[in-house]
Amino acid sequence: MEFLKYDLGYVDRGAIVSVTLSTGANVRLMSSSDLGNYERGQRHSYYGGLISISPFRIAVPSSGWWYVTVDLAGLRATSVNAGVAVERRPATQSYAAPTRDRGYYSRDRGNGDFEYFIGRDGDITAERPHVHVIHSQSENRIVIVGTHTDGTKIPEEVSLPFDSSCREVDDAVATVRRLLI
Fold first, then answer.
1. Residue span of the structural domain in which 143 resides
2. Which of 47, 64, 97, 172 could be bridged to 29 by S-S, CB 3.0 to 4.6 A?
3. CA 173 to CA 71: how far, in whole Å?
């Protein structure tokens, strides 16, 4: 399988990795050992998933040597351009740990569906309020739902075709973000 690989070097916990994409792609933030397993086609752990927003931003979960990979496995696109940058955080600044169940920022549901949360500020988050974006390959659609600080949902969900462009998904997410309280 072809993929783009970015060696981020040693990165401190809490630093933000920003990935810009020319089209939706699978983005994985991985440790050295998980990268080796990924390259060999073996089971591996990662943060990220199917990403349709650009830039995609994710916090590094622990200090260490990190890599980002970008691929198009299972997608209709035939090429992708990507850029990766690390926004280093001051060492004195602290960040709250996620309070959501299992603390995930994005996850693979295991059935070809991926989901992630976007906060009011546009960053990936595990906190409320957030926009919940679900790439449902099984339903051939992308579902966008807003959740307020108190856990109540915005009544209307947005449903887009699964092959929607990054721009279409970004516009829908921005619309729902404006409704968050």
1. 101-177
2. 47
3. 23
